[in-house]
Design goal:
Elements: H1 7-46, H2 58-70, H3 74-107, H4 116-141, H5 144-173, H6 182-210
Helix pairs in contact: 1-2, 2-3, 3-4, 5-6
C-alpha cells in the first residue's frame, strides 16, 4: 500500500522486507553451493581430460561432467535438466524484460502512463522481439560460448547500475521507518563496490577471451 506512515503500513512493510531477506538468503545458499559444485566438477573432470566447452559442442562437453562421474545413463538426465533450465531462464527473462522495456518506452514518452492498451502492445511486441533476437543471433554467430560471454559482459554493465541504484533508493527514497541499520547499510556499500570491481574484471577477461 501507499507509504502513509501508519503503524499498520510500517508493520506490513517490515514483514515484506523480512520475506525478501529470507528469499535472498535461501537463494544465496542454493546458488553458491550449486556454483561451487559445478565448478569443482568441471575443474576435476573436464580439466583432467583436457576438454574445453567451445562452439556447438558446449552442451556435449559439459555433459561429460555427469557421464564420467555417474555413468552414461546420466546423459539424458543432463539434457532434460539443461532443457528445463534454459527454457525457464528464457521464459522468465523474456517475461521480465518485455515489461521493463515497456516501462522504459513509457518513461521515454512513447505512450501515456494510463494507456494500458499501448502498454500491452509494447509488451507483446517486445516479447516477440526478445524471443526471436537470440535465435537470429545464434544463426549468425553459431557459437553458444561466445553468446554466453557476450551476455555476461552485458550483464556486467547492468550490475553496477542495479547496485548504485539501490544505494540511491536506500539514501534518497526509502522511508526512515523501514530503513536498515548501519551494519546492513555498510554491507550494501561494500557489496556495491565489489560489484563494480568485478564488473571491471569480467569485462577485461571477456574482451581478452573474445579477441
Amino acid at each position: 500500500g501507499p507509504p502513509d506512515g501508519s503503524e499498520a503500513w510500517v508493520r506490513r512493510a517490515r514483514g515484506w522486507i523480512h520475506v525478501m531477506h529470507i528469499d535472498i538468503l535461501v537463494s544465496l545458499v542454493v546458488y553458491t553451493v550449486a556454483t561451487i559444485a559445478f565448478y569443482l566438477l568441471g575443474a576435476g573432470v573436464l580439466h583432467g581430460m583436457n576438454l574445453v566447452p567451445k562452439g556447438n559442442d558446449m552442451i556435449v562437453v559439459l555433459s561429460r561432467i555427469y557421464t564420467e562421474t555417474l555413468g552414461p545413463w546420466a546423459l539424458w538426465v543432463f539434457y532434460a535438466g539443461a532443457l528445463v533450465t534454459l527454457y525457464g531462464t528464457i521464459f522468465a527473462a523474456t517475461a521480465a524484460h518485455s515489461r521493463i522495456y515497456a516501462d522504459l518506452a513509457r518513461l521515454a514518452g512513447l505512450f501515456h502512463r494510463d494507456d494500458t492498451d499501448a502498454r500491452a502492445r509494447y509488451r507483446k511486441g517486445l516479447t516477440w522481439a526478445l524471443t526471436l533476437a537470440p535465435v537470429g543471433i545464434y544463426f549468425l554467430v553459431e557459437n553458444p560460448v561466445k553468446m554466453v560471454v557476450w551476455g555476461a559482459m552485458a550483464q556486467s554493465f547492468m550490475l553496477p547500475v542495479f547496485a548504485f541504484g539501490t544505494l540511491w533508493l536506500r539514501h534518497r527514497r526509502l522511508p526512515t521507518e523501514v530503513a536498515p541499520g548501519r551494519a546492513l547499510t555498510i554491507g550494501l556499500w561494500v557489496a556495491s563496490l565489489m560489484v563494480a570491481t568485478l564488473m571491471a574484471i569480467a569485462l577485461f577477461l571477456g574482451l581478452r577471451n573474445l579477441w
